Amino acid sequence: MLDAAIEWGPKLLNRECDEIPTSAGIDAHLTDEIMQAARRRFYRPEYIACPGCGRTMYRLEETFEEVKRRTSHLRGMVIAVMGCIVNGPGEMADADWGYVGEGGGRVSIYHKGEPVLKHVPDSEAIDKLLELIDTSLDV
Ligand code: SF4
Fold it and tell me: What's the pTM value of the predicted model, to 2 decimals?
């Protein structure tokens, strides 16, 4: 895996090639992962999450797993789950959508770096995020 990433990652990033040829003998899943990591072809959503720290006031890992489970079909979308409103928005600046803990059982939902819903109870926040994503896909 490392050999393949070291060999093909720089070529893709430097745009010396557009694909990993099948003649390279790298299995299809690893090819997809390297293409996605180089942001040259997306075969699944891209996720951003912070590790959580003393500022995190909700179950970040559990929430992140549920968001991943419910958005796994959204190929190419960048979705962030961040622990706090202090640093979260800056650290997920290039995400399409963001779930950001405010503290006090509330969540802000971001779209393209801007808050679109604030103070959502955390019990409703994943559903709201999914509703907003669905609505944006219908437009
Ligand atoms: S985004 Fe907030 S909660 Fe997450 S690691 Fe950074 S400071 Fe901590």
Answer: 0.87
